[in-house]
Amino acid sequence: MSSKRDVSEKTGKSGERQEVVRTRFAPAARHFAERAREQAPWIRERATRLLAPLRGDERALDAGTGAGALALGLAPLVGEVVGCDIVPELLAEARKLAVDLPNVSFVEGDIFALPFETGSFDIAGTIRTLHHLEHPEKAIPELMRVLRPNGRLLVIDQLAPLDPPRAMEIDRFERARDPSHARTLSDQDMRGLFDMNGLTLLRQEVVSELRDVERFLDGAGCEGEERERVKCLAPGETFTVEVGWYVLERPV
Ligand SMILES: C[S@@+](CC[C@H](N)C(=O)[O-])C[C@H]1O[C@@H](n2cnc3c(N)ncnc32)[C@H](O)[C@@H]1O
Question: Rounded to whole angstroms, how far apart are CA atoms 166 and 147?
Fold first, then answer.
């Protein structure tokens, strides 16, 4: 008898979705590389505080790594980091950035079916990726599968406003600028996902980030008439978003 997962794989839906993601991110690989290089130091600073205490010999995963922002941030803090993504062009940029970091590697792989052994990581992280997934609720158990018992899950993503009309407005703008955007989760949604999977919340921080629409649209490769249309949906020329950082412990 087929499992639920077999059935959804046979529909080809996940393949179509991956194609949408590849079409959006492959041409933007250089942009993501610049951003990863720029952001790795402050990601490291916050991760050091949130993941403390670290022994320094941990094996860490960055799922949906893109050009490796989180992987590069974690590299000096742990024994080994593996970044995984479904877009080869992003992984190629990530490898260039990590050329002098012998403890970092990148492999192609889907967050819903990670190409790793059960229980093989001490830390599993994902940054700015859940909002690209149509079913983030299926990614959490898969990240937990590759974590050892009591391993730590680090989830970082933009949070939806609690006010539903405002959350819809943000999602409409995000989808217009980026067709691979699925849905921004609220803090409540995140906590619901964590509770449902028996994860214990160890630490949480919410950080305000200022977004500049022009730079944001550059990153999405949004040009010409489309750019003008998307700009009309933006909350302003600059706007602030809340980003949630969650550290959770996987049960035994
Ligand atoms: C906004 S980017 C964030 C990249 C990187 N984490 C960062 O913060 O710079 C979203 C990433 O999710 C990846 N992604 C989307 N769906 C995925 C999937 N099913 N499995 C693995 N990665 C996926 C995309 O390829 C892309 O690299």
Answer: 35
Three-state SS for 181? Answer: coil
Residues 190 and 215: their CA atoms lie apart, in Å, by 28
Per-residue model confidence (pLDDT) at position 23: 92
Instruction: Give yes or no for residue 89 CB within 6 A of ligand 1.
Output: no
Predicted pLDDT of residue 2: 38
Residue ranges, the chain, pLDDT below 50: 1-11
Q: Is 159 in the pocket of ligand 1 (CB under 6 A)?
A: no
How many Cα neighbours within 13 Å face the side chain of 85?
Answer: 32
In order of their start, the domains of the chain are: 4-160+181-209+242-249 (3.40.50.150)
Ligand 1 neighbourhood includes 155 CB (under 6 angstroms): no
Give the distance (Å) from ligand 1 centre to CA of residue 133: 9
Sign of CA dihedral 234, 193, 189, 208: negative
- CB 128 near ligand 1, within 6 Å: yes
Q: Give dist(CA 211, CA 95) in Å, integer.
A: 27
Q: Under a CB-based contact definition with an 8 Å cutoff, are residues 124 and 60 in contact?
A: yes
